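Final report, closing paragraph on structural work. Over the funding period we assembled a curated collection of sequence-structure pairs, and we close with a single example.
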Amino acid sequence: AGMARAETAAFAADLVLRTSPAAEPTPPTSPAGPTELVVVTKADLAPAGFKAPVGSVVTSAVNSQGIGELADAMMARLVPEVRDDPSLLNGPVPFTLRQVALIRNLAR
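Its predicted structure, as stored:
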């Protein structure tokens, strides 16, 4: 039942981070879906010659490797408009339906 709930939540999500530690690479059982971003973690523990999957983001919390790239990749997936207009994220950004509704009411 828990797996079914997780699959339902993943299907409804705007972005799913599929993580896999570099030190213990586990091949994905299926290709990444359109809302999935593959994140290789623990890059500082990667064995010599480790090759990350194409299109993945390689990170390490220990030495901050890839953290900026992960944030950029997440923003590109969640707010693709920011590529054309980086000023979109200057200042506060509403993220709940209530906040969006309040802003729409103010704009009237």
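The first strand starts at residue 16 and ends at 21. The first helix runs from residue 2 to 12. We thank the funder for supporting this effort.
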